[in-house]
Each structure stands twice: as structure tokens, then as C-alpha cells.
């Protein structure tokens, strides 16, 4: 019997093998999984970076272990294949550990994950181990091929890590410090470049409501609110190539009020992201959050202290609970918010710039990005970019305090790039300012 459970082991003949890390993908936005192998000595440690086979280093020079690529099959099955020839493995290597990583999601979201080893010559199945208990892990040690009594055996391990492939590798004695290349200091003439002004609203917040929206765009506000045609100056036509599973299409709705209010937009929407435009007059703080069924705070959509704010936020709706929001603007500050589909977000397909919080749509390949933050009027503040994928899961991409430059990478789309900013900023695809052993280079 070649299929075993967690903790089980099987003897092997020592013949050359092909080992697949298999899972099922259900289309764009599904979790990206990468296979890896670590060559471990008798002390349980790797000797150095050469003993790691992964997406940036596809072959081990002296031991006949290599990563051959990614293959898609019927029914959405996807497999990363490794080739292992036990006769060529160096005597100092006692174990070959096969792992998988999923940096932009968790393995609880990965469907039908298993490891399968077959004979490289006959195709006969030698071992099969299916993972059935994954939850929050971002890396999993699937199994290991190890020496025993002059031969080789396979053991199903199934040990998870919440720290990704770097954390798993560190457990085997391998760690690479970030080789950061600091961005050059701003030149003298650049220091005088003025901070971009906030985007002006086409109409004052407290202006009379324009023509009402069409039938169907109905909402409720606990207070004297107005529901009107969008007046926030953002085009509402489709502006990107995000797939429909990223967020539903619906008629935009807009609400205006002052101070702290709860909003029931009256929308019944399927699961997906919803964009929120926020306009607030004057100085002060504003926060927009989603609410639970019982009216308790749930997720933050946007918060800012920028004067005359014209920002963009986003939240993920589960498609089951009622959609409710709360706006909190102390001091009875006037505000307007609008809910609109993610299809209307501007695309990150070239250089972009903005002022304050924003959300961009990314549907391209994995790319390095150059960031620049100009800061607020005092050239200070916070700037950060988080990358959200289908299902509401996210990962950090870049952040810094006070103005300056830097670099990072963004995974292959579809993704939403959520910008938190206390001032002016720009983003441009191109060579990253941060060089890292773990930054994907393929």
C-alpha cells in the first residue's frame, strides 16, 4: 500500500523518483503554492543556501535534486514537480525534506493538497500522502526521504508553519538576513518639490443633493442624510480587468451627514470586495468601519486625519450578513461616503500617484515596485501598502515612516493594493529597491 497517513513511513527501492506537490486551483485569485526541498545533514541542519531548492534556486549542484516546473492537469489540478535521484545524493545528506509554501494565503484555503512520488522510469506510484488538517499555515513540511539501513524510506510529516518558507528553513538552521539596498537620499532640488494638494471635490459636502439615483439605489441612515448621484469626481465606468469573483457589480450609493452615524445601504450583495469613497470637509479625524449583526465594530474600512480628505477604502463582504457601516467624524464634521464596485478602481498598470488613502486594482504578473512617499505638509507621516486577494486575505508589501523611497514586490494578480498614506505618494513598476534572497526572481 503506497498511500499513508500522517506519521506513517514506507520503504523505497532507491530508484530515481519524480515527486509532485499537487493541489486543486479554482481559477484566478486561487492561492499560489510553491514546492521546495531542503537537503539536511545528520545534525538536522542544512549546510548553507546551496542546500535549499526552491523557486529562486531550482537545482542542487551535487545531489541530483531539482525543481522541474509547474504542470496543470484536468479538473483544475496543479502540480509542482521535483526530481530526486537517491544514488546521486551526497553522503553528507541524511534527509531530503519536501515542503510547500503559500505566502499570500493559508493552506486552510488550499484544496486537495497532497504529495505523490512515482518512479521516474516506470511511472509506478511509490508513495502518496494527502494533507487533511491544514488551517492557518503558510508553509508545510509535507514529507521526507531519509536514509535507513543502507536504503531509503519516506515518511509523511505534515508539520505546519505560520511563518512561511523562511520560517520553515530557519528551523533547519538556514536564515538569510535581508540584504537591503537603501534608497538614495532625495537630492536638494527634489527636497523643494511641493506636496500635491488633496484632490478637490467637485461639489461641497453640504451642497444640495443632485438628482436622485435610479430606483434600486436605496439606503437608510440613522440621521438626516441625503442619497444622491455620485458627486465625488471618480468615473464609475469599468477601469480594470478584475474578475467578477473579486467583487459584485451594483449601482453606486452615496450618503452625506455629520458626526457619527450608522448606515444601512439597503444592498443585498454576494460575497466580494466593496469600495468606499470618503470625503470629509475641514480638519480632524474620520473613521469608517463595518458592523456585525449586533451593531458592533467589525473591520476598519478607512481612517485618516488628513484635512479635506478625499480618500478610498475597501472592505470584504461575506455575502451572508447584512451590510452595515458606521462613520465616526468627531466634532460634527460634514462627510460624504459612496459605495461602488471594485471594477471602477483605477488599474495599477504603470506609474500612479495619489494623496491619502487609496485602492488600486492589480491584474498583471508578479512585479517589483518602486515606492515614493512625499509625506504631509510637514514632510512627515506614514505610508504603507497591503495586498489583498480574493476572500479578504491580505499580506504586507511595503511601509515607511516619513518621506522617502523604497521598494517591494507585488504578487501576480488579481489583487487589490490598499494604500494607507498621510500625504502624497507614487508607485511605479520597476526594479525593486530591496534585494532579498526570498524575493521571487522567476
Give the strand content: 35-45%
Major sheet, described briefly?
A: 6 strands, antiparallel
The averaged pLDDT comes out at 83
Rg over CA atoms, rounded to whole Å, is 26 Å
Low-confidence stretches: 178-230
Helicity level: under 10%
Going across the major beta sheet, what is the strand order? 1-11-10-7-3-4
**Helices and strands: which structural class?**
mainly beta
What general outline do the C-alpha atoms trace? Answer: elongated
Distinct helical segment count: 2
Q: Span between N and C termini? A: 38 Å
Please explain how this structure is put together.
Mean pLDDT is 83; it is low at 178-230. The chain is built from 2 helices and 31 strands. The protein has 2 domains: 9-176, sav2460 like domains (Lipoxygenase-1, Sandwich), CATH 2.60.60.30; 220-435, no CATH class. With 442 residues, it is mainly beta.
What are its keywords?
2 helices; Lipoxygenase-1; six-stranded antiparallel sheet; 2 domains; mainly beta; 442 residues
List strands and helices in order, with pairings:
Blueprint (H helix, E strand, L loop, with lengths): L8 E4 L4 E8 L9 E7 L11 E2 L11 E8 L4 E8 L10 E7 L9 E9 L5 E6 L8 E10 L2 E11 L2 H8 L7 E2 L7 H4 L28 E2 L4 E2 L25 E6 L1 E5 L7 E9 L5 E6 L5 E8 L4 E9 L7 E4 L5 E7 L11 E4 L2 E5 L4 E9 L6 E7 L5 E8 L2 E7 L4 E7 L2 E6 L4 E2 L7
Short description:
This protein is mainly beta. The protein contains two helices and 31 strands.
Amino acid at each position: 500500500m503506497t498511500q499513508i497517513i500522517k506519521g506513517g513511513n514506507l520503504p523505497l527501492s532507491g530508484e530515481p523518483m519524480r515527486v509532485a506537490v499537487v493541489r486543486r486551483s479554482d481559477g484566478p485569485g486561487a492561492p499560489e503554492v510553491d514546492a521546495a526541498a531542503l537537503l539536511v545533514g545528520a545534525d538536522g541542519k542544512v549546510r548553507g543556501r546551496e542546500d535549499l531548492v526552491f523557486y529562486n534556486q531550482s537545482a542542487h549542484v551535487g545531489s541530483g535534486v531539482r525543481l522541474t516546473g509547474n504542470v496543470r492537469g484536468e479538473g483544475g489540478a496543479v502540480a509542482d514537480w521535483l526530481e530526486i535521484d537517491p544514488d546521486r545524493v551526497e553522503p553528507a545528506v541524511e534527509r531530503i525534506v519536501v515542503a510547500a509554501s503559500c505566502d499570500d494565503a493559508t493552506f486552510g484555503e488550499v484544496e486537495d493538497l497532497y504529495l505523490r512520488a512515482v518512479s521516474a522510469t516506470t511511472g509506478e506510484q511509490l508513495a502518496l500522502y494527502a494533507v487533511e488538517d491544514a488551517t492557518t499555515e503558510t508553509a508545510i513540511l509535507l514529507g521526507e526521504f531519509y536514509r535507513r539501513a543502507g536504503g531509503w524510506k519516506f515518511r509523511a510529516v505534515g508539520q505546519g508553519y505560520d511563518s512561511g518558507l523562511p520560517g520553515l528553513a530557519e528551523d533547519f538552521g538556514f536564515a538569510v538576513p535581508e540584504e537591503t539596498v537603501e534608497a538614495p537620499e532625495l537630492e536638494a532640488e527634489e527636497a523643494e518639490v511641493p506636496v500635491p494638494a488633496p484632490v478637490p471635490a467637485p461639489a461641497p459636502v453640504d451642497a444640495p443633493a443632485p438628482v436622485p439615483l435610479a430606483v434600486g439605489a436605496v439606503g437608510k441612515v440613522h440621521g438626516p442624510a441625503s442619497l444622491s448621484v455620485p458627486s465625488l469626481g471618480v468615473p464609475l465606468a469599468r477601469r480594470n480587468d478584475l474578475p467578477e469573483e473579486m467583487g459584485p457589480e451594483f449601482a453606486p450609493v452615496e450618503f452625506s451627514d455629520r458626526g457619527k452615524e450608522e448606515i444601512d445601504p439597503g444592498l443585498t450583495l454576494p460575497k466580494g470586495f466593496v469600495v468606499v469613497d470618503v470625503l470629509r470637509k475641514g480638519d480632524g479625524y474620520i473613521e469608517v468601519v463595518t458592523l456585525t449583526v449586533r451593531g458592533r465594530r467589525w473591520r476598519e474600512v478607512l481612517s485618516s486625519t488628513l484635512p479635506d480628505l478625499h480618500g478610498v477604502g475597501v472592505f470584504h463582504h461575506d455575502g451572508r450578513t447584512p451590510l452595515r457601516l458606521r462613520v465616526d467624524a468627531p466634532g460634527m464634521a460634514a462627510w460624504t461616503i459612496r459605495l461602488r464596485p471594485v471594477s471602477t478602481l483605477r488599474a495599477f498598470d504603470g506609474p500612479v500617484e495619489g494623496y491619502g488613502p487609496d485602492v488600486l486594482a492589480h491584474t498583471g504578473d508578479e512585479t517589483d515596485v518602486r515606492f515614493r512617499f512625499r509625506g504631509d505638509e510637514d514632510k512627515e507621516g506614514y505610508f504603507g501598502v497591503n495586498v489583498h486577494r480574493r476572500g479578504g486575505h491580505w499580506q504586507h508589501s511595503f511601509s515607511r515612516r516619513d518621506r522617502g523611497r523604497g521598494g517591494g514586490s507585488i504578487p501576480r494578480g488579481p489583487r487589490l493594493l490598499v494604500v494607507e498614506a498621510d500625504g502624497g505618494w507614487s508607485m511605479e513598476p520597476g526594479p525593486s529597491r530591496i534585494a532579498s534572497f526570498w524575493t521571487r526572481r522567476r
